[in-house]
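Researcher: Following up on the earlier apo prediction. This time include the ligand. It's pyridoxal-5'-phosphate, with the SMILES given after the sequence.
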Amino acid sequence: MARPCEARLDLSALRHNLALARRLAPRSRLMAVVKANAYGHGATTMAGALEPLVDALAVACLEEALELRDAGIHAPILLLQGAFHPDEIPLAAQHRLWLTVENATQLAWLERATLPEPLHCWLKVDTGMHRLGAAPERVAEFHQRLLACGKLAGPPVLTTHFACADQLDHPATPQQIARFEELTHALPGARSAANSPATLAWPDSHYDWIRPGFMLWGNSPFAVPHAEADTLRPVMTLVSQVTSLRDIEPGEAVGYGATWQATRSSRIATVTVGYGDGYPRSAGSGTPVLVNGHRASLAGRVSMDMISIDVTDLPGVALGDPVVLWGDGLPVAEVAEKAHTIGYELLTRMPARVPRRVVIG
Ligand SMILES: *Cc1c(COP(=O)(O)O)cnc(C)c1O
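Model: Understood. Below is the ligand-bound prediction.
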């Protein structure tokens, strides 16, 4: 029998979340972003489930794309940062990967490349995030050179990325949309701007392609309630079990550093999940955990392989009882907030040690 600590994956939730993105952007094609091992869920499993339902996939780099091709994924795959080396460009063409071009060096590599077949290209423009993309005054020149280089399968898709779309009243998003309009309205080719928060909350940003990632995994990207985002269903539920139980007296402490002290006679449940399993060490005492479906609180520091939970107020807790760390019934964002990070990070950094198991296909 294996250690009872696993990430359960609900593929019906994935389809539900995808359907919401489709319903919100009915006239757009959908590119599912599966970079970083599908935000920790398992890239090949998730891409396999998504492939028949989406128009394209996106990843961060060639290695991630080739892992999907090796697993038999045939859908178009966009390399979101483009090539990191000129040798990647013919490989992208050979494996039918779509290439982002976002700076002058990448453009020059493409102009000089010898390709086995024409390439689909996305031209990224910097509308204000200032991380990637052609500067506004060079967009027309880049576009013209891409059309002239003779290596593309069609006009490049014009694309940009938002810095603040998760803040529902932030002025940066309408400003970025206006700049994108201004830079692209006169150019041929499809357009794409929307990540998950923009798919959910900024319909003017949908254009021809939406590019949701985080929302597909079933978590709201917003820090405040949102009618649509709050109907998403988590794909991953991190589960473990109570593996030890003890009663301690008032004044006694729990865990490394003795940081949590009982103020009353307390029942402490030990659960086999720790920071070696992706549960954040920065989550402090009081972080919520579900034991038998009921809320209880973390007591003391997170260890590498274990945590301790105060179950004094939950009568009848026994060895083997199920514990949910996040997912169904406990949004990962709530745990992330206690750990001073965001749900994106907790999901994405889930280590290989934790088995991923599809429980609902
Ligand atoms: C990661 C990424 C996305 C998806 O963002 P989410 O917030 O996870 O939906 C979309 N576009 C680009 C360029 C990205 O890097």
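Model: The chain has a mean pLDDT of 97.
Researcher: Noted. I'll compare it with the apo version next.
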